[in-house]
Amino acid sequence: MITKEVLMKNFLKNNSQASVLTPIDNGSIVDKIIDRIVKAIAAGQFKVGEKLPSEFILMEELKVGRNSLREAMKILATLGVVTIKRGDGTYVCDHIAPTIFNPIIYSIIFQSRSDNAMVEFRRMMDETVMRTAMTKVTDNDLIDLESRINEIRAAYESGDKERAAYLDYQYHVAIANICDNPYISNIVNGIYEVFALSIEDTIDTDERFNNAERFHLDLYNCLKNKDYDAIEAAVAESVSFWYEDRNETHS
Predict the structure, then answer these.
(1) What are the backbone angles phi and psi of residue 97, rounded to the nearest 5°?
(2) Which of 15, 22, 43, 47 has the highest local Cβ count within 10 Å?
């Protein structure tokens, strides 16, 4: 089995380990936080299974803001490098699956981003998933999706936006699972973990949440009514909303 130490050392073999947890300059802040944390783990500053310093301490040592640090930690959790235990803290994972560093998902996170390319990719993926799911959706699937929409609202109205965002992500994964195709499920699950990092920002007001819910209902109704012609418009609106609100909240 590939150990975390071996994986990290191979990943960083061309990088110096001399600088860990030093203050970060301007630029791609999130990427640089990730780089610092991974180097610190590879250098042995943080051991396998060890709890990382508190958010406040990391912010002070790295000289970064809370939002950037949290986004970096969510990405590291997605990659299986750390695990975030709510109410307890963040820990270095005690094992890592070889499939965690899927090159496709990794490139989406770390490559130089093109917003237009990302929107085009997500529209293509969502349309394909919807068209495939429409050929296989059952009454029980529709009941499950409707229940998930209600659960998202319940979480939001309770003030737990983090859970609402997680359930939002799971809603899209549930649609992919309707396809009953492990390749589709695995790809969508992995890629949506990346998209999920920005979901909480796009439901941070009642207006935005209501818009997001409306788009969920549009997708649901497409499947319920087997309305192939409505898929393109429903997906386009949903993706445009995600893209525009994501950029607005990070501007």
Answers:
(1) -80, 140
(2) 43
85: tokens are 């235990």
Distance CA 221, CA 228 (A): 11
* One domain, residues 138 and 77: no
* β-pair partners for 83: 91
Count of domains in the chain?
2
**One domain for residues 164 and 84:** no
CATH number, domain of 52, equals 1.10.10.10
- pTM score over 0.90: no
pLDDT in tens, 64-88: 999 999 999 988 888 778 889 988 9
CA 241 to chain centre: 17
Instruction: Report residue 48's pLDDT band, with 50, 70 and 90 as the boundaries.
Output: confident
Contact 117, 243 (CB under 8 A): no
Can you point out the beta strands (E) in 13-100?
82-85, 89-92
Please report whether residue 171 resides in a domain. yes
Residue 141 domain flag: yes
State which residues form the domain around 210.
114-249
Mean pLDDT for the stretch of residues 20-49 = 76
Residue 163 CA to its chain's centroid (Å): 13
